[in-house]
Amino acid sequence: MTNLQNLIISPQADLRAAIAAIDRGARQVALVVDEADRLVAVITDGNIRRGLLRGLSLDAPVSEVMNRTPTTVRIEDGVEAARRLMRERQLHHVPLIDAESRIVDLLWIDDITRAARRTTPVLLMAGGLGMRLRPLTESIPKPMLQIGGRPILEQIIENLADQGFTRFVLSINYLGDIIRDHFRDGSRFGVQIDYVEENERMGTAGSLSLLPQYPKEPMIVMNGDLLTSVRFDALLLFHHETDAVATLCARHYDMQVPYGVIDSDGTRLLGIVEKPVHRHFVNAGVYVLSPEVFDELEPGMPLDMPDLLARLTDRGDTVSVFPLREYWLDIGRIEDLERARQDYHRES
Fold first, then answer.
1. C-alpha gyration radius of the chain
2. Do 43 and 113 contact (CB within 8 A), yes or no?
3. Residue 20 pLDDT more than 80?
4. How many Cβ atoms sit within 10 Å of the Cβ of residue 41?
5. pLDDT value at residue 134
6. Rounded CA separation 136/335 (Å)
7. Cα separation of 327 and 340, whole Å?
8. How far apart are alpha carbons 279 and 22 in whole angstroms?
9. Do residues 223 and 286 share a domain?
10. Between β-strands 260-265 and 268-274, what pairing exists: parallel, antiparallel or unpaired?
11. Which of 157, 199, 233, 276 fits a 20 to 30 Å CA distance from 167?
């Protein structure tokens, strides 16, 4: 049975408490329970991320995002009814309640089935020149720079492997033989690794067209020079819940104006805002692409990911935005590499 105490929060809790419960329970859901242990609502990881996209702060009450009418199963109906319900409605979790709506357990798809979501293929883009990291990248590709004694790309693969992903494709170009010689077929890391090689610069999405076979299920695509602690199963669940053909991970980026910004009406001063901070969502370099996305590819033709996503939105497809709240660091500059190394030693 699930340790319910890790998942339970009160109706008076804020989003910060809900996130803590979701992270503790590792079920992408928190249960809102009243003083009599009756189930009031559920909050999924996706509910919270959609709230953050709406501009909610972590101090906002859970009532802003919680689902007050969750699908549940009565204890007398049993696990078989839950299994059937999950399959019919493509649900990943169902609360088990008694006749008084008191929470008894949380049934989780991975606990009662052998659903193989980890067959999801992962494409890691590892062919960049790393110009901003020169001279470090003059003789070694950027994804092979070391943090804590191991290449960045090795840490990415091991993180995904720890989460159950085993099928990888590495897109290589600049000094690609170094990457291929290090990882080979992936067997020493407990995974399967294949390669596509760009003979010319293909853009950030062009190497997708080089795949010998297009995937038959959603594929994770990720830059091979970034570190993140995101749960990729939560990303895939969000992709499914939003009925998207593509999902783009986004990260908050703050820009501070170093001066007092003037608000005026013609020549009349209305006010001065001193050094305001503007917050934006920026591309985090992690994507989920469903099989139909590959219809937009032209074999061998260069293509950047923003252009591919624009094609999808132009044809009316849903492209979802998944806001990252977890650790994320793009290692594009020498100062980023040094920060990653400092973060590693702090966590060690």
1. 23
2. no
3. yes
4. 20
5. 86
6. 12
7. 11
8. 25
9. yes
10. antiparallel
11. 199
Mapped onto helix, strand or coil, the DSSP state of residue 348 is coil
3-state helix, strand, coil in the chain (%, to 5): 35, 30, 35
123 with 26, same domain: the answer is no
The 8-class DSSP code of residue 72 comes to -
pLDDT in tens, 306-316: 999 999 999 99
User: In the structure encoding, which two tokens stand for residue 91, read together?
Assistant: 């649900």
Exposed e or buried b per residue across 297-311, where buried means at least 16 C-beta atoms within 10 angstroms of its C-beta: beeeebbebeebbeb
Beta-carbon contacts of 303 under 8 Å, excluding residues fewer than 6 positions away, are 202, 203, 204, 205, 206, 208, 209, 297
Q: Does 183 lie in the same domain as 161?
A: yes
Q: Which of 68, 91, 112 is the last residue of a domain?
A: 112
Residues 308 and 182 in one domain: yes
Q: Assess contact for 66 and 42: CB atoms under 8 A.
A: yes
CA torsion sign, 218 to 224 to 225 to 230? positive
Count how many residues are written for the chain: 348
Average pLDDT, the chain: 87
Question: What's the mean pLDDT in 285-300?
Answer: 92
87 pLDDT above the threshold of 60:
yes
What pairing do the DSSP bridges indicate for beta strands 226-228 and 328-330?
A: antiparallel
Parent domain of 86: 4-112
Query: Cα separation of 237 and 245, whole Å?
Result: 13
Q: Please state the separation of Cα 174 from the chain's center in Å.
A: 27
User: Distances from the Cα of 103 to the Cαs of 2, 31, 35, 99, 144, in angstroms?
Assistant: 11, 9, 12, 10, 48
